[in-house]
Design brief:
The chain is of the alpha/beta class. It folds into two domains: 194 residues, Spore Coat Polysaccharide Biosynthesis Protein SpsA, Chain A; 193 residues. It contains 16 helices and eleven strands. The strands form three sheets. Strands 5-4-1-6-9-8-10 form a seven-stranded mixed beta sheet, with helices on both faces.
Length: 403
Amino acid sequence: MRVALLSALEPLSGGVLSPRGLARIGGRTVLQNQLQYALAAGCERIACLSHDLPSELIALQHEAERGGAQFQCIRDVKPLSGMVTASDEVLVIGDGLAFNAGQASAPDRSGSWIASFPAEEGLAAGFERIDRDRSWAGIMKIPGALVEKLAEFPSDIDVQSSLLRLALQNGVKTYAMDEGLIANESWVVIDSEGAAAQFGAKRLGQVVRRASFAAPVHSLSDFAAFTVLRRHSDPGRASRVGQGLALGFLAIAALAIYFVQPIVGFAAIMGAVFTYRFGQTTALALSGVEPASTSDGWRGAVFPILVDCAIFGTAFSSLIGIDQWQGAFAVLMLLGIVRIGEITDPRKPWPWVSQMLHDRGLLAAFALVSTSAGVLITAIQIVSVAIVFLELMRTYRAKLTQV
């Protein structure tokens, strides 16, 4: 069996009393990031050193149990000996260590090992020295038998450092990590709020591709999502609420169609696009998927169709007489042109055009303003021609670059 040993003992620097392990990095705490890594490495038991039991550790326990692992908070080494047998493997992850799990190859190695960096680079980055030439990279896999030897030590020892010394004394080999992980700040000891904010911002940028200002509703939604990820105590719940609100706004749009209230309908569609994008961005950041992606399963395919149907229905209900059928054709043409234009071709220039066309909130805002001015059909026709012109220009420029 494999057991993970985490730690939430060391406080952040700068007079902050909160433990390093509870610092937030991209919507998740350092310990949540470590737990995700430990579960992926096959750990069936999780032990976390902590002086007390804050709500964050209770949430961590529930997350571990959902992942099929037992979780226990311990104050010192004594309870640890009851969790680990001599035949177990112990995965030790250092206090405050933050990393991108996809860049860590050490857990794929068989047997016992101690991950290391060159001493000079490691010490400068806050890692513990092993010897003259090496520093501990903050992670190791050691035999469970070494835990039993901790009984010979005083109860107030630094458990992880003591295990490191025991592992070295008992011949556990070091594994040299790529020192480039330190240089590009992908493997960091979070010892301050500033370090947590910097690592979190970089991690979010790697996982989520933020919309540009060419797609204003998506851009504002991403900004809101990033703010929540940095500050909200439970961004996962905020994500679920956002996606639930998106369905609620679509229901309001459907009622607006029934009662012929196009202004309310288009405003509700804008709200649906904003909240759905917010929930999608937040969930994607929490999942830690790399590289950046906008895939959201079947919902990612169905939701845009529902939004297009809502836009068509709202526009159709706002027109009367012969203009209704003329308008229906114009709206269908516009939605078809937008659908074609939003397909991102890496060979095409001006990627902001695809982002703009993908933002249905922007389209709903345009329809709202046009409806208020009483020129919806004319405005749709003008915009359709403009999009066709842009796409022709993009295609022409793409062919020129291929020659």
